Amino acid sequence: YLPQHLWWHAPPAAAMSKAFTKSLLLYNKILIRRLKSLISRAPPAPTSATERLPPSQRRESSTAPLDALPAPGTMDNDNNNGGCAGGGAIVCEVEGALLMSSSTFPYFMLVALEAGGLLRGLLLLLLYPLLRLLTDELAMKAMVMVTFAGLRKDAFGRLGMAVMPKLFLQDVSAEVFHAATSAPATAGAARRRRRCVCVSSMPRVMVESFLKEYLAVDAVVAPELRELGGYYLGLVEDEGEAMRRMDVEEAIGAKGGAVVGIGGLGCSFRHIFQKYCKEVYVPTESTRRRRGALHPRRYPKPLVFHDGRTAFRPTPAATLAMFVWLPLGAPLAVLRTAVFLLLPFSLSVPLLASLGMHNRMIASSLPSAGDKSKGNLFACNHRSLLDPLCVSAAAGRRDLAAATYSISRLSEMLAPIPTFRLTRDRAADRGAMQAQLARRGGRGGLVVCPEGTTCREPFLLRFSPLFAELAAGGVDVVPVALHLAVDMFHGTTAGGRKMLDPLYLLMNPVPSYLVQFLDPVECGDQEARAVANEVQRRVAEALGYERTGLTRRDKYLILAGNEGVVGAAASHDGGPKN
């Protein structure tokens, strides 16, 4: 037994509660401090010249909020370097400055989905919570590893030109772009815009095509991906290696005038801002929220063609929603296809509307099937594989035939309306179209897409006059304006498997078609080219689209590197891969 003075006496309940509360608060403070140290914080943008430089190399530097972006002529009047008036340079960071969003995750996710497939995209999505705990530099390296490891360099070359610019252009800040590329107004000197140099922590292959081709940027400073045997290793050089590889001073043109920097929330290549920029403008969070996106009509080069299946901005939440939807979307696409094939239009159209596929028809005067001289030739712009089918359903005529080119045999077999292939032989194609119109005693119908290929953006390609040459037989042309809206997947491709086009289109949660029948064009004695131009003009006015002289050949040269001609061998497989 212990002596009485060594007995343990329990403290009062109030004292225990107070001690427990203090220990709990202390533990919470330690835990919060540890969590804050794990959360990656964007380093502040440079605000002054580096103090580590020798005094003889230091430049006077100042900071200003982004509301006071450099106006034309403000930096050139006090240029003491002897450069030409009206010149100078702008060094602009891509993430958080030129682009309104400072997050690079959507761009890597787009590469993972389009170049690596769904499994690679799912892996990148599963790693997103871990990426949030890493620093910006480590998170970038991890995304590069997951996205690019094992990809062929040649395959991504097309992707960088055909797929990436669309997503980048939607996020360009109008204020920063105009400030970076505007021409300073200087009195008594030639008007010359500043030299624009963009710096980015993303790999060069992701951003260079977008910046130089569509925004007319003069130079791009970005790290290169490491490769071996034509395949990317998933490794990227650091900023120091990129600086040593290229002549930064020559790229910036620092000797030709004052250099102004526009930084983002996280500063890539901070040494460039500190050493070469006389002033650096830093965005505030409130200013970033007030930014507006650059309007498509203000692009230096219009975006007419782009490729890829992803039709949304792949943020983490949107990508998660896509993966959740896929197990439901695939059976829904099969069900929608069965409804189209098995039921008449009077039943299939309302049933498809209940399944989320919306169709709207606008018709001033819809010709009937019994009219032998008018209303049997429908000419529409081309948005997807289902264009002729939607025109037939809106007109209520299952007898309309569709002239097709470069679609898969599977799509031809599943088509609920007659189809026939064009051969790009003018005489043979004209004879085939006349034969279709002569069916049923001259009451046969025909749907043609004179553009020859699809275009996703609000532009119309040049209309081929072949369909208008049929006007010599007394057939008037009915222009049809089509507009397609999708929310998850594009149902067209220039470099992928065309046999999957209907599946991707019908997997969209709520695809919608607008079918507008316009007044017939009386051909009379007009030339075929004049008739084709008139049909294009009417369709463009009805939709608010812009007319172009581009053709199918132009599209495939840009997106796929070929002329879009399908050979005889390609027509026997499950869908040509251009």
UniProtKB/TrEMBL annotation:
<protein>
    <recommendedName>
        <fullName>Phospholipid/glycerol acyltransferase domain-containing protein</fullName>
    </recommendedName>
</protein>
<dbReference type="Pfam" id="PF01553">
    <property type="entry name" value="Acyltransferase"/>
</dbReference>
<dbReference type="InterPro" id="IPR002123">
    <property type="entry name" value="Plipid/glycerol_acylTrfase"/>
</dbReference>
<dbReference type="GO" id="GO:0010143">
    <property type="term" value="P:cutin biosynthetic process"/>
</dbReference>
<feature type="domain" description="Phospholipid/glycerol acyltransferase">
    <location>
        <begin position="376"/>
        <end position="485"/>
    </location>
</feature>
<dbReference type="InterPro" id="IPR056462">
    <property type="entry name" value="HAD_RAM2/GPAT1-8"/>
</dbReference>
<dbReference type="Pfam" id="PF23270">
    <property type="entry name" value="HAD_RAM2_N"/>
</dbReference>
<dbReference type="GO" id="GO:0016020">
    <property type="term" value="C:membrane"/>
</dbReference>
<dbReference type="GO" id="GO:0016791">
    <property type="term" value="F:phosphatase activity"/>
</dbReference>
<comment type="similarity">
    <text>Belongs to the GPAT/DAPAT family.</text>
</comment>
<dbReference type="GO" id="GO:0090447">
    <property type="term" value="F:glycerol-3-phosphate 2-O-acyltransferase activity"/>
</dbReference>
<keyword id="KW-0812">Transmembrane</keyword>
<feature type="region of interest" description="Disordered">
    <location>
        <begin position="42"/>
        <end position="80"/>
    </location>
</feature>
<keyword id="KW-0472">Membrane</keyword>
<keyword id="KW-0808">Transferase</keyword>
<keyword id="KW-1133">Transmembrane helix</keyword>
